């Protein structure tokens, strides 16, 4: 019954079977019915309208909110040999007329449009003259006023039901909550749509949350095993984003900042680089995310706490869209709690709204301090039940321990109370440990009955305990003051000895260091596979550059990985690899076979090194750092930099960080003579000891490039 759909799946997309509910959805839509599809990121929503679009006669119109998303999908379809175009305002009138002509002639199967464009009367009139196969409304939650992605233009899409009563419509979203779901149905007039609800579990993501100790060091520890992987590091403030990006670059991890404070073209440039290059880390505020369809983001790391589980799920969900192993890692501490509570307090909005936000934050804190399976808790929050602990999160694999903290918790609460409910954790810990310092003495706190009663625990253990008291709402933070702790109503039962308190035992820092990197996800390829893997990636990169598309559009990582493992020896065998459809086989099959047979190993490695070097230089690394990173001599780095400057792939500023006047002096020295630039050798004595000779090569290359154009 689904034979034609399966044939398209295999021939065009190169896949063997449908995933999850794809087959049912495709059947429904291909036969003319409406559908509402709720599927997590990476679940495979695109095929749900692309396959019916190819099965049905006529044009499929896809509504998508962002140009970047459209371009990505059009490029992907183009590579698959499917006639798809996007209409957008950046195209010239000429181009647009051209596209309209092709649409009239029925040469195009899929048309991508922004909602505001689709609902223009002229556009609707134009489409009414054509044979329309299907309307697909992607990111359908944009119609919801309650979500943060609300797009007013989506509200007008409801009229499609009346204007095109015969045309089936499919709405898709990865936002699952009940309220959004009902709004989509109401506003898009999808009362007759069959609903397809998938599990929102992301089984390939490994979750880990560690207590924050020395966050940068902890982050480096986490990244150490993930060199060369692309990922996102989320921070709360712009300043921190800039600092962390610089820090990572210095440490040999090419990283770029992204936040709303950067000029918009720079932001766009960084985003583009993140999509097009491999192994780049984006350090970002939450301004970065929507519209990032890069499938091979291998990790998402949080250095600050998201303000709700919804946000946490969304942000971590950007990892591992391709279904390959990926990591969600977070470092979290008391400071995060204080900061978020403070922001909440100072935010606009009425009391009801604040209470709601407070509940959301509490749920997030609950996940952090949880002792049981994180995935079970996360899914339960979204009303989904996972029968067994997942075995694929830190709590499942580390066997977290709890301890009876009833007595120390009472001591801590008592210290808060007796010191007048106004001091922060540092001072409270000093009291409990009996530290006889100036502040304690000045306040006379050495006379408190709790002074020195807590010597059985170490400072770190006390801090962990205070953090958990606040996270569980047993102590409050005085937000008007200076973050002093207060008792809360809910701590009474504990103080009276009516209940016991079991707390999570934080791993010791050195232990946490050891296990922080432990996850099923670390490393897609084994050591002995690395060379061939890099060679395959280098070829993909080269093809991607030639076609001006991101590498994953040529082949996703999962396809390269399967090539690596199954080692096809012929085109026929290559056709069996998942993700290799007819068109790609024809275009790229032979080239990848050559690499697999080892025919082109050496040159690709060189290409690889150059490419890497350019990325690193652009990310702001110095030649010395680059040499360390690429494990080659500095001399070598300088000559490759000079070469890249000569080819105008790098600017001199990107390659070197020279003081203005020194640069001027060197340039003058080169330009002193008449005619030809003198060779570097002629100047090296003059600048000996002041700059490396390699610097002269770079400056000369820049001058030469400038004069040649
Ligand atoms: P979503 O839009 O739901 O986030 P995508 O449509 O981008 O997900 O699909 C995620 C990835 O899974 C893509 O690389 C896609 O090619 C791949 N994929 C989708 N369906 C299948 C399938 N049936 N078999 C193999 N890979 C698939
Ligand atoms: Zn688990």
From TrEMBL:
GO molecular function: 3'-5' DNA helicase activity; ATP binding; DNA binding; four-way junction helicase activity; hydrolase activity; metal ion binding
Any Pfam family the entry gives: HRDC
SUPFAM superfamilies in the cross-refs: HRDC-like, P-loop containing nucleoside triphosphate hydrolases
Residue span, HRDC domain: 526-606
TM region positions: none
Keywords in alphabetical order: ATP-binding, DNA damage, DNA recombination, DNA repair, DNA-binding, Helicase, Hydrolase, Isomerase, Metal-binding, Nucleotide-binding, Zinc
Gene Ontology cellular component annotations, sorted alphabetically: bacterial nucleoid; cytoplasm; replisome
Top class in the EC scheme: isomerase
Keyword match DNA repair: yes
Record-annotated Helicase ATP-binding domain positions: 26-194
Catalytic reaction(s) noted: Couples ATP hydrolysis with the unwinding of duplex DNA by translocating in the 3'-5' direction
BP terms from Gene Ontology: DNA recombination; DNA repair; DNA replication; SOS response
Stored NCBIfam families: recQ, recQ_fam
Official protein name in the record: DNA helicase RecQ
Organism: Pseudomonas cavernae
């Amino acid at each position: 019954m689904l034979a034609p759909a399966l044939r398209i799946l295999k021939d065009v997309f190169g896949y063997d079977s449908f995933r999850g509910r794809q087959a049912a959805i495709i059947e429904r839509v291909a036969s003319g019915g409406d559908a509402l599809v709720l599927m997590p990121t990476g679940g495979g929503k695109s095929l749900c309208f692309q396959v019916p679009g190819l099965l049905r006669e006529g044009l499929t119109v896809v509504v998508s909110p962002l140009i970047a998303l459209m371009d990505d999908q059009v490029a992907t379809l183009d590579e698959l040999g499917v006639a798809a175009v996007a209409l957008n305002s950046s195209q010239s009138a000429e181009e647009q007329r051209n596209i309209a002509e092709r649409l009239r002639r029925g040469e195009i199967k899929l048309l991508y449009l922004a909602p505001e464009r689709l609902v223009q009367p002229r556009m609707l009139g134009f489409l009414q003259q054509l044979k329309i196969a299907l309307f697909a409304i992607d990111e359908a939650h944009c119609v919801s006023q309650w979500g943060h992605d609300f797009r007013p233009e989506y509200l007008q899409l409801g009229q499609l039901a009346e204007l095109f009563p015969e045309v089936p419509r499919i709405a898709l979203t990865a936002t699952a909550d009940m309220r959004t779901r009902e709004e989509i149905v109401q506003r898009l007039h999808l009362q007759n749509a069959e609903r397809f609800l998938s599990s929102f579990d992301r089984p390939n993501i490994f979750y880990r949350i560690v207590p924050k100790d020395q966050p940068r060091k902890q982050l480096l520890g986490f990244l150490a095993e993930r060199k060369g992987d692309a990922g996102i590091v989320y921070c709360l403030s712009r300043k921190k984003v800039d600092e962390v990006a610089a820090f990572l670059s210095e440490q040999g991890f090419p990283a770029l900042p992204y936040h709303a404070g950067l000029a918009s073209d720079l932001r766009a440039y960084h985003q583009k680089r993140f999509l097009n290059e491999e192994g780049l880390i984006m350090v970002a505020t939450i301004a970065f995310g929507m519209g990032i369809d890069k499938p091979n983001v291998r990790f998402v790391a949080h250095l600050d706490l998201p303000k709700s589980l919804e946000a946490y799920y969304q942000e971590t969900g950007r990892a591992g869209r391709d279904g390959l192993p990926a990591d969600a890692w977070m470092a979290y501490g008391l400071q995060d709690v204080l900061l978020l509570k403070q922001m909440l307090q100072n935010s606009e909005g009425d009391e009801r709204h604040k209470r709601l936000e407070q509940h959301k934050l509490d749920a997030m804190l609950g996940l952090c301090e949880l002792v049981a399976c994180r995935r079970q808790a996360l899914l339960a929050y979204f009303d989904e039940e996972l029968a067994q602990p997942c075995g694929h999160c830190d709590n499942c694999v580390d066997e977290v321990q709890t301890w009876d903290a009833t007595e120390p918790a009472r001591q801590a609460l008592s210290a808060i109370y007796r010191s007048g409910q106004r001091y922060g954790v540092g001072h409270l810990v000093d009291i409990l440990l009996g530290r006889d310092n100036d502040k304690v003495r000045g306040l006379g706190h050495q006379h408190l009955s709790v002074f020195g009663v807590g010597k059985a625990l170490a400072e770190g253990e006390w801090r962990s305990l205070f953090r958990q008291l606040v996270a569980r709402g047993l102590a409050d933070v005085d937000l008007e003051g200076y973050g002093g702790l207060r008792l809360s109503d809910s701590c009474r039962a504990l103080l009276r000895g009516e209940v016991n308190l079991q707390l999570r035992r934080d791993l010791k820092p050195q232990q946490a260091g050891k296990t922080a990197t432990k996850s099923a996800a670390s490393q897609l390829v084994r050591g002995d596979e690395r060379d061939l893997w890099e060679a395959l990636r280098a070829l993909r990169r080269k093809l991607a550059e030639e076609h001006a598309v991101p590498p994953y559009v040529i082949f996703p990582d999962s396809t390269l990985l399967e090539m690596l493992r199954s080692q096809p020896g012929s085109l026929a065998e290559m056709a069996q690899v998942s993700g290799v459809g007819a068109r790609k086989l024809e275009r790229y099959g032979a080239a990848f076979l050559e690499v697999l047979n080892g025919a082109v190993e050496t040159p690709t490695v060189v290409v690889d090194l150059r490419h890497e070097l350019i990325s690193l230089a652009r990310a702001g690394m110095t030649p010395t750092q680059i040499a360390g990173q690429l494990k080659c001599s500095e001399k070598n780095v300088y000559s490759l930099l000079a070469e890249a400057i000569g080819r105008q792939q790098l600017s001199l500023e990107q390659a070197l960080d020279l003081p203005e006047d020194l640069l001027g002096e060197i340039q003058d020295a080169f330009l002193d003579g008449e005619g030809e630039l003198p060779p570097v050798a002629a100047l090296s004595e003059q600048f000996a000891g002041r700059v490396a000779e390699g610097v002269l090569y770079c400056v000369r290359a820049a001058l030469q490039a400038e004069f040649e154009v």
